[in-house]
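retry 2 of 3: previous attempt timed out while embedding iron/sulfur cluster. Reduced batch size to 1 and resubmitted. Inputs unchanged:
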Amino acid sequence: MDHTEDRTWCPSAPADRPEAVLLGVHAGSDGLSYLNEPVPAAEALALVPEGVEATSIMRFAAHCTQKCGHHTGTGCGLVTKVALAAPTVPGHTLPRCHLRGQCQWWRQTGVTACRRCPLVRTELAETQADDLTHKLADPAVGPHDLPT
Ligand code: SF4
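retry 2 succeeded.
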């Protein structure tokens, strides 16, 4: 990862992009356990047991392409909704996160995103996703359509 580049990175990205890196590992109710240094996604994927979906146990970061369904033309619509409605980790201090210098979510909402980021899942099994999760994940649902 080039820390001098101006391009931003998405902290909840697919693992199959060439530049993708491991952001952290899901660690129960405390949420994501962040890595101090980025590890290439390919190296992390090699450790995932067969039959396990990598994004069920890990989160990856990759370039913000500005082409995903969440991009509004001016920024990331997903983090706008996360900042409004996603739960925070109680008593959680800001994660020590290697991505902060390039993170699109940080640039848009600063600590508001970081306090919610540990509990974000890139993908959840249908049976695990509640109504709020569906609304956050659906690009067609705008911030004004979220429960208050
Ligand atoms: S939102 Fe904050 S904690 Fe999450 S990846 Fe970005 S800088 Fe790191």
